[in-house]
Structures are given as C-alpha cells and as structure tokens.
Design a protein that fits this description.
Elements: H1 22-26, E1 68-73, H2 91-103, H3 112-120, E2 126-130, H4 139-152, E3 158-161, E4 196-200, E5 203-207, H5 225-240, E6 244-248, H6 265-275, E7 279-282, E8 289-294, E9 300-305, E10 320-329, E11 332-343, E12 348-359, E13 368-369
Parallel strand pairs: 1-2, 2-3, 5-6, 6-7, 7-9
Antiparallel strand pairs: 1-10, 4-5, 8-9, 10-11, 11-12, 12-13
Length: 372
C-alpha cells in the first residue's frame, strides 16, 4: 500500500464529466442540469452512476450489496466573522489567536462557495467531516459550523466528528459541540455519545471523538478506554454482519509525533488488529496521507487523510477533498478514490488524480492499483 501513485483524470461516466469547476461539472447531469443552490448538497440529484461501479436497482436497503458514494473533507477552520473578544482570549485560545494573526498575512483561505460549488457537482450519497470546523472554539464559530453542516445536507446524510480545535478550551455543550449534535449521531434519533454507528446500506460508518482540551503547546488527542471498548464491540458486531466498516477519527493513528498525535494510538491499533475494519478516514495533519494499518490475520486497512478543505495560497498543501466509491468486489470490497484539489491558476477545484484499493488484502498482496 505504501508508495501508491495517483494518476490524472476523473471517475466520471460519459454523461457526468467533471471538467474542473463544480458548476460546469453539475451541468453535465442529464444535459442541462445544474445544482439548486438553496438545496443541501447531499440532496442534489445525480442522473448518472459514476466511476464504473453501478448500484443494483433497489439495493439501498435491500440484501444485494450496494455502492456508497462518500465525500470526505476535513479541517475547515471556518474563518470567524469577528475575532475573539478580550474576555475570550485566555490560555490556549490566546496562543492560538497570536499564531493565527502571525500567519494570516501570508496564508489565504478559499471562499466557502468554491468548496460548496465543487461538492454540489458530485451529489454524494453521504458526506463525512472529520473535525476542526472551528479555529478558536468560539460560540460564534460553533454556530457557523452548524450553518455549514446544514448547508451540506440533512443529518441523515452528513456525519461530523470534532477535532482538537473544536476542543481548544472547554466550552459548555449547548454553546459548543451541542450545536452539531444532529450530525454527530448514529442510527438513533438523538446524540448518544461516541462512538456512534451509522448504517448506510452495506456500509457501517463509525464516528470517534479524539477531541480533548490539552495543555498549551500540544495538539494531541485521546479516545479513552470507554470509547475503545465500545469501538471493539461495534467492529466485532458489524464485521459479523459482513458490513464494510469505515472509521472516522480526527487524529491519525500513524504519522504524527507525540505533541500532535493520538495519546492512546497503541490501544487503537490493538483494537484494529484484533477486530479489523475496512478503512479509516482522518484529518488533523493538513496533508494528504495513505498509510497501512495492521488488521487481523495479516490484513492491512488504509488510513486515509485529507488536507484542509479551504487552504488557499500560502499553505503548504492547498485545499483538497476526496470522493470515495465503496462497492462489492469478489466477495470483499473495493474503494475508488477521486482527489479534488484547488488550482489557483484557474481559481477552482479540479481533479488531481484517482486511485483504487481492494480492501482487506493481506500484507504482500497488491492492495493498491491505479483505476482504469
């Protein structure tokens, strides 16, 4: 899996060719179709099956395996309309604000419509946001995050988990993460804590929270024993049911130092090694990542990270998001990934590449291949 390459192109079918701009891409749906800017993105219609994987008719909630089209974005750090007040600048929030002010002149953020327009052109079945919608964990930012999630789609199709910036300092539930409770729930009607389990046909999406307040100078996360035990139970149950298990977490289990990493990463790796999962999606690192995590019986699962969703000029990695198509293949599962990235030369998102994984492969097998 290490060393997988990306290849230019798109995963579009003949009637759904993504030519770069979200609006131009959307107009290819059924000829002259264009997205309704007043409808949530996850409710935009798409008249074509894309990427060569086609859903079986009537299989969304039936017994036949289905294909799920899932968008993944992370680390929006939605710019606050107004900065923190003097009363709000205390402790770690003050340090974060000073760092933000220092970097602000040379780092630009994309206008939010750039991202929304591009997402609208693909009309995914579901959208996963893996944390850090806020920057300073201000009540106004949590309200802006709620408005953004509502714009993406209804809670039944949009899933969110918090990141370390969303827990920068302790914030009362009602003014903070409680604003997003509808999008942080599983199959229950109300938020019931982490991890949550959302079944979407034959795909089980499990959301974790690694967001905890930490000391100044640290950006680490922690799951805790209770979450890990519950995760083990959910992975075992959904594995027995033959579901494709997708784990959402903000902090990656690999690739970060102790200051920025997951404190109990070893315990998480033990759970995954024992019970397995098909894939893990994360944010936090602000860079693209594809790393192998050991599963049971010598298998590996991909840990996939995306950069910031709104990173413009001055950032090391410009804005990106991923479009995944998860479908059945040979008694297992296949993952096709389309990488969408911001191109400052044309001031819009375009396709940067695509790649394909056969999930659940053993170490030493060809787990990654370039999609045809």
């Amino acid at each position: 899996m290490v060393g997988a390459q990306q290849q230019g192109g798109t995963l579009a079918c003949p009637g759904h060719r993504h030519l770069g701009a979200g609006q131009r891409a959307a107009q290819q749906f059924g000829g002259r179709h264009a997205p309704d800017r007043h409808r949530p993105l996850a409710q935009q219609p798409c008249r074509h099956w894309c990427g060569g994987i086609r859903r079986r008719r009537g299989s969304r909630y039936g017994r036949a395996p289905m294909t799920l089209v899932l968008a993944h974005l992370s680390d929006l750090h939605l710019p606050p309309e107004a900065g923190p007040t003097l009363r709000q600048l205390f402790g770690k929030r003050l340090l974060s604000y000073l760092a933000w002010q220092r970097k602000r002149p040379r780092r630009k953020e994309l206008p939010l419509p750039h991202l929304l327009e591009d997402l609208a052109g693909f009309a995914p079945d579901a959208i996963a946001v893996t944390g850090d919608l806020t920057h300073f964990a201000l009540p106004d930012e949590f309200r802006a995050g709620r408005a953004f999630l509502a714009r993406l789609g209804p809670p039944g199709k949009v899933l969110a988990i918090p990141g370390n910036h969303d827990a920068l300092v302790p914030v009362p539930w009602a003014a903070g993460l409680g604003q997003w409770a509808e999008w942080m729930r599983g199959d229950t009607e109300a938020f019931a804590g982490f991890p949550f389990l959302r079944r979407m046909g034959d795909v089980a999406i499990i959301g974790l929270s690694s967001a905890v307040p930490t000391a100044p100078g640290l950006a680490s996360g922690r799951l805790g024993r209770e979450q890990l035990d519950r995760l083990a139970t959910l992975l075992a149950e959904t594995g027995r049911q033959g579901l494709c298990r997708v784990v959402l977490i903000h902090h990656p289990p690999l690739g970060e130092n102790r200051r920025r990493g997951l404190d109990d990463r070893a315990a998480l790796m033990q759970v995954l090694a024992r019970h397995g999962a098909e894939m893990l999606l994360h944010g936090h690192s602000h860079r693209p990542a594809l790393l192998p995590v050991a599963g049971p019986a010598g298998q590996v699962l991909p840990s996939i990270g995306v950069p910031q969703a709104l990173a413009g000029a001055g950032h090391r990695h410009l804005a990106r998001w991923h479009l995944y198509r998860i479908g059945p293949e040979g008694g297992g599962w296949a993952l096709e990934t389309l990488v969408r990235g911001y191109d400052p030369a044309v001031d819009r998102f375009r396709s940067l590449g695509r790649w394909r994984l056969r999930l659940g492969r053993a170490v030493g097998e060809a787990a990654v291949s370039i999609a045809a």
